[in-house]
Task: structure prediction
Amino acid sequence: MTLKIHQDHSRFKQIVRGKIKANLRKYVQKGEMIGKKGKDAISIPIPFIDIPRFKYGHKEQGGVGQGDGEVGQQLGPGAVEPGEGKQAGQGEGDHALEVDVTLDELAQILGEELQLPNIERRQNERIVTQKVRYTGINTTGPESLRHFKRTFKQALRRQIASGTYDPARPVIVPTREDRRYRSYKLQDLPETNAVIIYMMDVSGSMGDEQKEIVRIESFWLDTWLRHQYKGLEARYIIHDAVAREVDRDTFFHTRESGGTMISSAYKLCRDIILADYPKSAWNIYPFHFSDGDNWSADDTRQCIEMLRDDVLPNVNQFAYGQVESPYGSGQFIKDLREAVGDSPNVALSEIADKDAIYASIKDFLGKGR
Amino acid sequence: MPKSLTPRLAALRDEIHGYAKEFGLDFFDTIFEMVSYDEMNMVAAYGGFPTRYPHWRWGMEYEQLAKGYEYGLSKIYELVINNDPCYAYLMESNPEVDQKLVMAHVYGHCDFFKNNFSFRHTNRRMIDEMANHATRVRRWVDKIGVEKVEDFIDRTLSLENLIDQHAPHIRRNPDPKKAEDELKANERVGGFKVGREYMRGYINPSEFLDSQRKKVEDEKQRAKKFPERPQRDVLLFLLEEAPLEPWEADILAILRDEAYYFAPQGQTKIMNEGWASYWHSTIMTRRALKDDEVIDYADHHSGTMGTRPGAINPYKLGIELWRDIEERWNKGRFGKEWDECDDLRARRAWDKKLGAGREKIFEVRKHYNDITFIDTFLTPEFAMEQKLFVYGFNDKRNSWEILDREFKKVKNKLLQGLTNFGQPIIEVVDGNFENRSELLLAHRHDGQDLKGDYARETLRNLQSLWRRPVNILTRYDNKGTLLRFDGQSHSERKVEL
Result:
């Protein structure tokens, strides 16, 4: 049975995708996709069209909340809904349950939203491991898998039903029949090796905003590739005029200054690949972000040579994302496009601002390599 | 398609119906229908009316609800429509105890719809009316084309909130001729009737007569203005005065009608949800609940009442306030004596055994809306017990934080958020601004600035209806500002207020 709503629904989706009604396109909003960074909990992106109205700025408005806390205490991220929230009162009662979404589910959502193809693995899937997945509840099982909450709930149920529950003295004793156990299935999982090598330009011209863009974008690239490859490794390289390998935290928080020699990063990247990641056993994804303002044409030439001779033959895909900055000339992407733009395993993308991130993710991952 | 209840559920409905009546709830006939989760999402996306006119925004609502459901983030339990008879939807897949809870909750809503004054002027045949609206819109779509009609709806949605919430309760002079006569009668300024001629100078001194004349003169001046007085119902003004095509006027009228139908639900969200929750809780715990259902009921009920720091849960705030009122009137904690007592121990032990709580809440549910409800019944003790606070945005730390727990500030902020649904108050001031048929709106500034980019886009949509340039007078950084859109470009200038 088809529901009448589907007509309105598909029309809405067409507007969001920019197929029809271009005049509404500018009102399409995508909620901030990273809600919480820690502990895998994230808000789901749901596009909506924000019809303009006369209204107050949300931040100016504030509001009344409920709960513990001293004056001056911060409310956690996600505590305050952005925007004016839903229109009041339609006689409905929807109860939001706070449910965490795992990164894996998030990746699926991302894949659906951006219609990303699954990645074709380059390596043969030689190693197969079995993985245990807990999928249900059983009345028998080993004690180590006992589900305490369900067991006690069952016992409480039984005691109330049989009238032996005393609210004044709430003692609950599960019997053999009350016990509930987690049950599992074994799943075969092909194991493949993959590595992402992140490179970022941290020269003086890359400001906080540009880094924020890189941070968000790498988060999504990471999420998607982790979804595709279990056991993904990541390496981080920062560079200005010289390059060095750093840990993840430093990668996102360093601010250097000075000139830009992109070749230094590519050289380090090449060395890492040659040393640690033989082509025969690894799927390799270098991603490089810069504002495209390289030191000299000579350095650019070196970069291209290195790419062509040493990097491209060894990797699944080389991706370069150019973040627009007020200082950069943005020449580098043009040079790359000219020199290696035709190679099947090169993805180039220009990222003008935060809103362009989604399109850029699609540029990078849309090839399914 | 919606199905009627199974015999088992029908029996449960009769049982709950009996309890609701026993407690004195008074409602229209209520028809329950069973729907699947997908149908539920659809009906909810349409704001409760499956027969609504076609438009993408229902699709947008549906997308949010469907995704929320699929990813396990939210679920609609209950949906009830203010209509005579009331319609309510139950989700097929819900367990029996949930269905009972929902039924009890629904009877609470239906009682509220029928009795609260805010709903007195709503159309109780709205289901039919919505279907008629949809037919009218479809007819225009066939005639004019879907693109044009939809574009017009999109632009009008931008103005949808510019109605006068209180308009349905104000009786305007129904007979323009009579009004004219009255005006004429007033023009003859004779003063009061004088029995003895020598008293005339005392009863009608010349200053008095002058002031009366001036009043008449002012009245005349005002009549020349257009509109006579600032008008909150901007949609009505556009409907009557903007150069709209017949189809445009028809659609505008439809959207305005629907906005007025939904307005009371926004004005009574806290009371209404609180009332329904109070009754599902009372009916379930005192009557309907079986022993083996207690845990699932408690689980569900506490989920509904959950709070988080950055928002008010109307269910929670509402039910607690209703219970507080009931307790205060049961124990006689009101009136002069109570207010003046500042002995904490005496206050805590205060119990006059009045037992008037139930009666009081039934009275309150009739005569209040959220604003007067909060204004009258929110007490410092209650605010403290419920841990209410004011939060705001700290620019320096770039985060939301708790600003204050002081009762007055909490109450004011709460009321501010409820006044006009927390939206700015906008009026039509002049339909012939600067004598050039331009439209002038004014924003009644109450300390908060309008969001600039939204205001400019809204002006653009307004202009497309008015055809001539449009202006809005507001304030930014405490300086008078006139925003203007002339059909081509936006401009902005400072003005003296």
User: Anything to note?
Assistant: Chain A has three domains: 1-51+101-115, 129-189, 192-365. The mean pLDDT of chain A is 76. The CA atoms of residues 167 and 326 of chain A lie 68 Å apart.
